[in-house]
Give the backbone structure.
Amino acid sequence: MIHAAGICKSYRNGPVVTPVLQGIDLEVQTGEFLFLLGPSGSGKSTLLSILGCVLTPDAGALDVLGYHVPEMSAAELTLFRRDHLGFVFQRFHLFRGLTAAENARVPLDIRGIDKRTGIRRAKGLLDAVGLGDKVDTEVGRLSIGQRQRVAVARALVGDPPLVLADEPTASLDAESGQQTVELLRRLAKERQTTVIVVTHDSRILPYADRVLHLEAGNLVGEETPTTTSG
Amino acid sequence: MTAFAIKTLLADPRKLLIAILGVAFSLVLVNVQGGLFIGMIRKSTLLIDYGGADVWVGHRGVQNADITADIPVAWLHRIRAVDGVERADAYVVAMGMLELRDGTFEGVLVVGSDPVSRLGGAWSFAEGNADRLQFPDAISIDRLDSPRLGDPAIGDLLEINGNRARVMAKTDGIVGFITTPYVFTTTARARQFTNTPPRRCSYFLAKVKPGHPIDEVIAQIRARLPHADVYATDDFSWATRMYWIVRTGLGVSFGSSTFLGLLVGLVMVAQSLYSFVVDHLENFAALKAIGATDRQIGGILFGQGLIIAVIGCVIGHATSWLIWALVSTPKLTIAFTPALMIAATILAVMLCVVSSLIPLGRIRRVDPVSVLQG
């Protein structure tokens, strides 16, 4: 699914160059539910951005779904994300004025899939996340937890083989956070979707198949849920 | 993505309202300024446009129907001898001084036409009719100019350059560009009122026989009268309008104020769309992250610009119509023509399209990575 070797990334601010990732090697298997855990500034969001093909590494090899990402142009990366990836953002980034169903089918609209199919698939996903009765509700009228579930539905609606979630529980209370991750895991496992989650939230770690620890731009440890949840 | 464009736009009604008002404001300005301009400039050619002649012959260098120089009546025979000329008559347009009953006076433009053919004669009578101009000393004035001329009633006597003039008819809305009241009468009486010599006139107006090409008739007249200017009616109308537009700076004046109005509208629409984009920049970044191309996002903005244009145009045209209904009079004419409406609509749509492209540059610079890195 994902093969990364020697991934490096630095940020330049005038003459100051700050290394963020320092040679990350990573293998992710199809259907895996993987967490990236680490303190602020450890490089986990940067790594997620690189794996999500919105940021290109300075050095290293990266294959995602068999594509050699560093060799792809910006336009090719955009289409790649559209066709193969799903995203759950920390602040949801749902569109005001649109209903839950309309928000959920945005990735299908972008792909040019017809409206009827889009609505059917969006409603199916919203049913699956427990919002079957909210499909026609404008997202501004939903609770925070419900909004994040709409965001999960949006990430999965195009049946992407890979979903990337950036702090999906950060805006939620503990209970909603756990429900959201549980839901994401269940739906991903049903679809054999690979999910990579960046999080600070240790309470959701038991849901991971594997947890990778980052510190100062390096992978410093790898754990399984049994060890992390204990 | 059309529904997306519409609904996300409607989700921010305040900015939508500002943008719509911007378009409507621009449209009203174009309509009113353009309508005033057209209405005003049309007045400069009333005599030509409503005169009923096909050909106008005047002094060499004549540029304007209201400002004339005398030509010899003897030339008239050369015109009448041209094959294809059905009829040609002398026509007098000259300044006169009308003495009011209270002893004051008012400058008038005396228009004398042939009483039989009535080429170049008065039309649109409110009181009386053209036949009554054949009465002794008869003149026709416009009811809108009547107060300036002491509000004479039908049958009242006035004096023009010391000559008796009896008001026998009144027209409705024949008010010229230079605001000097028109006084219609016969050719002979017009000469008398304006001290024009008997063998002189201002123009010859000709009617071309059906089936004869006007251009050929004009070419023949030009050949016979090399010292005169010969125009088809439309050409003389155009020349007169251009004279006023260029000589008075009317075009520059109206054009610049219309341009400024468009600029204000453009800024309002662009500012609204731009601030809409800036307020939702992270959402656009999210769209880019999930695979929307710049072209698709441009399409969304374009669609939103069009929606604003359509709503703004409807409101703008309705407001313009209301202004026209309340304000436009024969003296202050707003010519709200279909061509003007179409032109204003095209300008408004272009304005919105341009405005929608301005924030696109900002979106293109947004890195989708921003939504994944807080």
